[in-house]
Amino acid sequence: LKLEALRKYQILGEGNFGQVWLVTESESSSTPYALKIQAKFELIEGGQADTVLREKEIMSQVRHPFISNLVKTHQDTDFLYMLLDYAQGGELFNAIHADDHDGLPEENCQFYACVIAEALAYMHRRFIAFRDLKPENVVIDKSGYPVLIDFGYAKYIPEKSFTLCGTP
C-alpha cells in the first residue's frame, strides 16, 4: 500500500492534533481503511510527540482480532500517518446512544464486555495498559465484534504504576 495513492472519502473523526479519514487503496479497491493524520507541529507544541511514538510502538507489537490493526505508518515534513484497518460498524458510543433505543440489550452488553475483557487480558499479558477505555474508543467490526482503537494513552507497564490519565 502506498499512502500517496490512497483515496479519501470522508472524515471519520477529528481530534486536537489531526483527523481520521475513511480511505481506500484506489477507486477500484473495496477494502476500506482508517487513515489517522496528525500534524507534527501541533503534536510537538502540545507535548504529544512521545505519546504518538509510544502509540505506534505498541500498536505495531500487538496482533489480536479485537485490537485495531496498524497496517502501515508514514511521515512527511508536516504530518504523521497511521493506516489502520477500518471497523465498519461505527463507535460503540453511537450504538449505545442510537435514537431508536435507549441503551443496548443486556445480552449485547455481556458480549461486548467479554470480548473487550479478552482484548485487555491479551494486552495485560504483554504488560500493556490501555488506560482510556470508553465507548468512543471501541468500534464494531463488520461481524459485530468490538475492537479497541486509539492507543494514545496505552503504555508498557512492567511493574506497578500510579499514573492517572485517560478520560474522566
Automatic annotation (TrEMBL):
What's the domain of life for this entry? Answer: Eukaryota
Q: Which GO terms describe its molecular function?
A: ATP binding; cAMP-dependent protein kinase activity
In this chain, ATP is annotated as bound at K36
UniProt cross-references to SUPFAM superfamilies, sorted A to Z:
Protein kinase-like (PK-like)
According to the entry, every stretch annotated as the Protein kinase domain falls at 6-168
Q: Which Pfam families match?
A: Pkinase
Keyword Nucleotide-binding on this protein? Answer: yes
InterPro entries in UniProt: Kinase-like_dom_sf, Prot_kinase_dom, Protein_kinase_ATP_BS
Keywords, sorted A to Z = ATP-binding, Kinase, Nucleotide-binding, Serine/threonine-protein kinase, Transferase
GO annotations of cellular component type? cAMP-dependent protein kinase complex
Membrane-traversing stretches: none
Q: Which PANTHER family does the record cross-reference, listed alphabetically? A: CYCLIC NUCLEOTIDE-DEPENDENT PROTEIN KINASE, PROTEIN KINASE DOMAIN-CONTAINING PROTEIN
This chain belongs to which protein, by name? Answer: Protein kinase domain-containing protein
List the taxonomic lineage.
Eukaryota, Sar, Stramenopiles, Ochrophyta, Bacillariophyta
